[in-house]
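Page 42, continued from yesterday. The earlier attempt failed because a stray header line got pasted into the input along with the sequence. Redoing it now with the clean sequence only.
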Amino acid sequence: MRQKLVVLICAIFIVGCAWAKGPVKKYGKLKVVDRQLCSEEGEAVQIKGVSSHGLYWFAHCMNRSSMKVLAKDWKVDVVRFALYPKNYKDLPEYYMKEVDELVNLAEELGVYCIIDWHVMDSCNPNNVLTEAKVFWEHMSKKHAGKDHVIYEICNEPNKTPWSEVKKYAEEIIPLIRENDPKTVILVGTPNWSSDLAAAAKDPLSFDNIMYTFHFYAKSHKNRKAFIDATKQIPVFVSEWGTSSYNGDDGNDYESSAIWLDILSGNNPDRIKISWVNWNFSDKPEASSILLPGSGVRQEWNRLTRSGEWIKKQFSK
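This time it went through. Structure tokens are written below.
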């Protein structure tokens, strides 16, 4: 009996040590070296995780209970917090406080987080430049230098050229850098972050910058253009789904697997490309990880078929 107790205690200790060495403790403060996201020590890394849906609609799916499951059971490396500017504009102090609390929770759990200014409905990020400056001034002061934080300054610019996105980035990035010189910044690209070509031809002149690419496996199959861009600029897939581009209309797991294989390093330059899946919510659509009603009931293992498929990717 005593021997079994000793074995059990040892097992608990081993599991506890493994949990203590979460991704942030393992990799430290991330940085960009050439075109590769790297650990604090300069080793190539690929972090993988999930994104919330808009916090206005699905805050009930992103809280201490769910994030603890994602960090401890799923073993995700990163969680993305999506805040739509149109919602922020209604209650700025409320939403800044909500994001701050989620960022602090990610730190407590030892996982990375992406603060996502979820430009989409605004089309051109300059349309919400005034609000963005206030938001990023707060975030870059409040969370300056934290090992686990990444800033995503404009989610999906659309119906606007790269020149406009670049103009916006050249306003926001210096503002952030004044408060936080080293944290990785993700910059959206035209056509809902699916067109990297213009950014590759005319990149920004800042350090620790990556360009976001989004794909939905059932709709987006032009992998050659994506690979060509990764030969020129550092890329982070801050959003992708197994479904069509609208987040619905069924799932394509074969295409998803091909994309993830490329991101894992099976590309000409062997670049490891980090990714975040859309989305950890119980919205009744194909891209959702949770079955409808799961978030309301705080039942984080009631998964859609897509959710089950995504969960398996974190154990590979």
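Notes: The chain has one domain: 49-313.
Reminder to self: strip header lines before submitting.
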